[in-house]
Structures are given as structure tokens and as C-alpha cells.
Amino acid sequence: MAGRSNRRRRASEEALEDRAVYIISVAAELAGVHPQTLRIYERKGLLSPARTPGNTRRYSERDIERLRMIQELTQEYGINLAGVKMIVEMTSELDRLRKRMESLDRDYHRTRERMLVEMERLQSERRRGEIVPLSAVRRLLRQVEAHDLQAATGRRTASPRRGGPIAVGPARDDRDRE
To answer: Fold for domain 2-91?
Structure first.
């Protein structure tokens, strides 16, 4: 439950950061630059402020943070705008990959938990001397390989039915009655 509330809170905070509310003069003042500088940054692809129906630029809190970062990189570290653009793009990609990794990590933990529950269920049902059919092992390996391929490429692959447990072990026959 705590995980859900944390995700909701983070999503709410991100929505506030992305809400475009500042006009160009206020954004320039908050970032400590001239409004013309903001227009230049936009032309160079360093910023993309939201636009109102009247085509007025609106800057978000995230845009202001990016402006401050650009100022720091250019003034304190002497990086030119082409270098800043590359850093901004790499930062955006890193954020995207970080979110993807968090998503994959959540999927991994859910899958692992399901696997542990299933293993526990199977162990409690296990009869002495049972043999797992090779077809069940092969099917399980195909499912694991499909999942690994999906995780590596980030693309969904067609997978066999999802859901219920994987049947293992032979059916009971007359030999069990002896």
C-alpha cells in the first residue's frame, strides 16, 4: 500500500513541476536571464515551453530548473550551447532510462513473488518420486526466454498464455495405488 501512495505522490509532484504557469518575463527573472535569452534557448532546442491558445509561451517549474542548469553549465563551466544541448539530451535520456529501470524492477519483483508462491504451492503438493515431464520444462524455458528477450529489448513479444500455474508431474495412475 505504501508503494502506491508514494507513486501517487511522485506523480502529483511531477504534474506540478510540469504545469506551465510562468510567462516569459517571470521565467527569465526566476532564472536570472534576459527574456531574449529564453527565446534563443528555444530556437536552439534547449527548451520547449508550452504555448497557450494565443501562442504565448508558458514555462513550468521543470523549465525553470533546466534554465538554471543551462546557466550554470555556460557560466560556471564555460560549456557552449551545443555542449549544453548534448548534456540536456543525455540527462533526458538518463531520466527516461531510470524510469524504465524502475518499471522493470517492479515487474521483476512481482514476477519473483509469483514464482516463489507457485514454487511453494508445488512443493506442498509434491509427491515423493515424481518426475517432471520434459515438455513442461521446455515450455517453462520458452516462457523464461521470451521474458528475457522482452526485458533486453524493451519490446513486448507474443507469449504463451499467461496466468495459471504451470502443470508439472505425471498424472496419477494405477501404480500410485500399490
So the answer is: Multidrug-efflux Transporter Regulator; Chain: A; Domain 2 (1.10.1660)
